[in-house]
Amino acid sequence: MIAICLRGPAGAGKTTLAYELAKVLRQRGFFGEKLGYVSADMFAHISMDCQYTTREMDLKYRNIELVIRNLASHGMDLVYDDTYRRSQDYDFIESLLEEINYHPIYKFFVSVPLETALERNRARFWKERLSDTLIISHHHFHQALIARGEIMVDALMEVKKSARLMADEVMSSI
Questions:
Q1: What is the pTM of this model?
Q2: What is the CATH number of the domain that holds 42?
Q3: Residue 122 lies in a domain
Q4: In whole angstroms, how far apart are CA 16 and each of 30, 89, 149?
Q5: Strand partners, 13
Q6: Helix (H, G, I), strand (E, B), or coil: what is residue 123?
Q7: How many domains are contained in the chain?
């Protein structure tokens, strides 16, 4: 089983890219019916205003773990996207995937200028919108994690082109 992980600040376009990447890989005959998609956004409403307490963050990642383990128990490959707010969660997901024997694990960092992230966040549905302060904080947090063995993806590039380049990377090493 393989795992493809997309990480980046809120508003970078990870979810859009994840969907397009899965579509491109399926068109190339890669996944078939054995693809699971998990987005941390699926668990965003554990907190009503997306302003998580430590307890809510821990609950969010316990639930994500259960879903990923369930997909793995069915032999499913994985596409996962997340906006990490704590480095421990990034490390947790990476360790979890290794423990479950996802191999290889492709890691992509979806990069976007801060102004673009702020604009995209302002266009979100009100329940998913974060404060500018939190977006700025996420952006700086992710910039500090850049050198973690991830492939950089420029989110300002056209989505279909980015997805094709990502698919090329995945397929070139299999």
A1: 0.82
A2: 3.40.50.300
A3: yes
A4: 19, 22, 22
A5: none
A6: coil
A7: 1
- Tell me the CB-side half-sphere exposure of residue 21, using CA atoms within 13 A: 31
Per-residue pLDDT of the chain (174 residues; tens, 9 = 90+): 899 999 887 778 888 899 899 889 888 888 767 888 898 888 876 666 666 788 888 998 999 999 999 999 999 999 999 988 788 898 899 999 999 999 999 988 888 888 888 888 888 766 667 788 878 887 777 777 666 667 777 777 788 888 888 899 888 876
The answer to whether residue 20 is domain-embedded is yes
Q: Does residue 174 sit within a domain?
A: no
Instruction: Name the maximum alpha-carbon separation found in the chain.
Output: 42
Q: Domain of 76?
A: 3-169
Q: Which residues contact 149 (CB under 8 A, 6 or more apart)?
A: 107
Q: Is 24 contained in some domain?
A: yes
Identify residue 148 by its one-letter amino acid code. Answer: R
